[in-house]
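dude i think i finally got it to work??
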Amino acid sequence: MTVAEVPTSVLSEHFEHLLSGRRLVAAVFTTFRFEPSFFEQEILPVFFDIPASHIPGIRLAQLEVALRDVEGGIAVYYDHNGIDPSDGGGARLDIARLPIRHQRGVFHPKLAFLLVEKAAENGETSPSRSLIIACMSANLTRAGWWRNVEACHTEELQAECATRLRDDVIEHLGWLRSRATARNRVDPLENILKFIRATVQRQTRSLDGELHPHFYAGNQSVCAFLKDAGGNALRGMHLEIISPYFDDHGAKPLQSLIEQFNPRSTRVYLPTDDGGAAKVSADAYAAIAALDGVEWASLPASLLQTGKAVDAKVRTVHAKVYRFYSSTPKREILFIGSPNLTTAAHSGSANVECGVLVEIATARRPEPWLTPLTKAVRAFTDPTDDDSASSSSSPLALDFDWSTGLAHAYWDARAASSELTLRASGEYVSTLPLLTPRTWTQLSSEISERIQEFLSKTTLFTAEHSTLPAAILLVQECGMEFKPSLVRELSPADILKYWALLTPEQRHEFIQNHMPYADPFGLGADVDSTPPVLDHSHSLFDRFAGIFHAFDELERATVDALSNGREQNAAGRIFGSKHDSLGNLLDGLAKDLHSHDSKTDGFDIIDRYLITLCAKQCCASIAHAHPDWWMKHEKNVALLHERLSNLKSLRAAIETHSAEMPQFLKWFDFQFLTRARLKMGASS
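look at this
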């Protein structure tokens, strides 16, 4: 492969193509640096086939709805020092955000595990699932996905296939699960692990002389991994290395590679700034240049420029690629992933790194990608390190549970904490009590209420300690089905209409028409306009047929979610605090109980009473179909019954219309709430 033949694309477009025609079931991402707001606004929409709005607030609301159907959930694992403090209001969506504290180095892998499903077709009896594994150099940041030159390789595993990746991926994911600071939430890792455990481990390194893809889990040195995975195939080949960062002194990782594989030639990409100064220390530059057979080299300008104009800016190279190739025989093997050419990255005992070794089929004789430099470098500058800590961190982790309204704190240190002060958006939040080391501590209701108050604005908090600098932390959230929706409050008529919509396109259009253009986090705040409220006075949805249809769709969607293991989805629909939850509908009906004789939101007293009966019938049907789930939510069920009890005055008001009305309503309620069931085998 020549450098002109290297496949290039925008990272987001690459993933859009991979997921085309398939839906996301579960996803796990790992990253060193993490910009949570950018991830939600610009990266996450790539994985959903939705007509995402260009207005940030509306786009978030659309994603909030789309995430309900990802039954396995989405998680991001990031280095605890990797949060970007300039990233707006932090995270807002139902995504597990799990910090990793790695004492011996940094948590550095850039991975994506995407469990996807394709609908059954051509006589298939069930949908087919596969797992996409991406090894990248790109962090989940604006620079990683939009500005830098990065490298990415993807492998797709079919259900129960044979793969050389299996055991090493399982080992890494198991390590990841054991090291995450998390409290009682469903982990998407389980869905990924379940799928890959059903595959079969290949026992051979290669087939017909071609290497199988191998996954580097970071549990040994890079050099040892390449030797074990590649055997003798890598010896005596040409070696090209693209790495943005190096040790400050010496060239130990490169020396190890040369000693192990004895390359015919070695070229190393030299990163430079706009003025031509080398972004490497003078000592490291000299040490690498002094190695026998090693040359500093450059990449073609066409690969680095942002456009074809003469004055087009040059992009930063952040890719990590180790390329082994030979012309005779024609062979090309790449190691792509997160390891820079540093001792910490290559040791297997300092940083946590990951990558993939893959052989590329080539019809032509491979040619060099890098061109040796003809002039010695005289100027040096410190690199702007995308792989260095972007914030100071604290041993503190915070979790807020929206289903209980309680916050918990975790102090990841050997000794108990001293007094800690929490701030958010520059304002004082609370002072935390002394925390027992390495255990989750429930915080008081007063502190929890203060944290909840600020979570409506931001999830980025700072922890201040008397002897340490202020440290940034990203608050974890669970019970997100009970977090108030990003969509503005809907009227009962709007909720019924939303339930009755049949396609995702209809629902996304509805959200766009019912979402303020300026959202509470300041995204799109420069546009201060709200779409007009729709007029329901002549709509189908203020009469009986529309009401029945809406509740039928609510029940169908809830039972479908429970039948397919999406319990959080079902809880959000029935008990939650989202824009379209049953509880919000009942609250809306209760607002104007004092004005029974007038129409509220297009509904008169009969309409509202009928809606109440439909709600009771829907709950009874769901409880009958899934009794264990219903009993598990005993507290939420009690709150729902309390809401229904608050509407008893509707019936009392109707009974005053005539002397016969109480007896009629007694009969009507019984008939309405008793569903007719087909009696199988009965004679006609």
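The chain has a mean pLDDT of 86.
im so relieved honestly
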